Amino acid sequence: MGSIIEIAAINAQVSSFSDFIEYVGKRSLPEKTDRPAENKRYEELLSLIDGGDYNRAYFLKSDIASDLIKYCQTSLVNEESFIRIVEPRVENQRLYSVHRDIGVKQNKHFYDMSYGIDVHISDLWKILEKERSGIIITGSVSPPPKVFLDNIQTLEDLDSNNKEKYHDFAIKCLKEFIQGNLDWMKNAGFDDPQKILNFDVKLSDYYKECIENNHQEAVNSIEKIIILMCDEENCDYEQRAKHLSQLSQEKIKQHMLDNAEYLKGIHKFLYSYGHRTEFAIYVKNVVSVLREL
After folding, report:
1. How many whole angstroms from its chain centre is CA 255?
2. 59 vs 4, 12, 134, 140, CA distance in Å?
3. Phi-psi region of 125 (alpha: psi -120 to 50; beta: other; left: phi over 0)
């Protein structure tokens, strides 16, 4: 709701929203020499938006701001697109509130002598049990996934008699998280994914199993087959070769005839990996089809 009010207020006072957005974008440039001369009117309007210079510029260029601007100017909006953009943000905002609530309870545990340990254990457990893996957020401005592990550790430390219950619960939640966030697990910065895997040896095995299943499904998707060939997935040669070799010559031929991107990917693949023995079966099948065509 705050974003809608901000955009509406600015829209009512500018003749060109695009000029305003351009000004804000240039205003946040690192080099002062590249920044525009100060526009007092724009500066006043900019103060209506929460956050620092970079966050303001980022927000104004976002999909949600674009839809809000369109709505304010025309009263028309792509409802499906708007819902798709807004729903995750609303859910993230709810989860931030959950984390804040946990933080409040932690402070009470440390400093409020009337807040008993048993009550704190019960409160924290109820939250984690309700939210499960959903409380583990991967957004760049959110509490890192490690916070979930810290909360589990708190329960284990304060309620050692039920340590196994908390540990098993965490494994189930982390498995849910891993399965639903494979791309994040492969591409996230820092060491957050490894901290998750280090929680229990079962998780490393489960992660490998998920990767294996993901690539198994890839042979049924032309887009994922192209990704496998182009080495855009985080897996070793043997694993890639294993799945590519499952493609029959009939399937390969059909993909070549139906999808130009696949044929283009074949060309790049043969140039980069055609000489590797791991891919011998797939290369043989591809070459056979090319000769036939």
Report:
1. 30
2. 12, 18, 25, 14
3. alpha
Which residue has better confidence, 235 or 266? 266
For residue 35, give Cα distances in angstroms to 39, 93, 126, 265.
11, 33, 51, 43
> Residue 209, SS3?
helix
pLDDT of residue 1: 44
Residue boundaries of the structural domains of the chain: 2-77, 92-214, 220-292
Residues 168-209 have pLDDT tens digits of: 999 999 999 999 888 788 766 667 888 899 999 999 999 988
Phi first, then psi, for residue 232 (nearest 5°) are -90, -5
CA angle 193, 195, 201 (to 5 degrees): 100
Q: Number of C-alpha atoms within 13 angstroms, CB side, residue 261?
A: 9
Closest by Cα among 138, 139, 176, 133 to 151? 133
Q: What is the Cα–Cα distance from 270 to 264, expressed in whole angstroms?
A: 10
Hey, what are 270's tokens?
Answer: 């043969």
Instruction: Count the Cβ atoms, other than its own, within 10 Å of residue 216.
Output: 12
CA atoms within 13 A on the CB side of 153: 8
Copy the structure tokens of residue 174.
Answer: 């982390």
pLDDT at residue number 224: 77
Selection from 37, 89, 44, 100 nearest residue 63 by Cα:
89
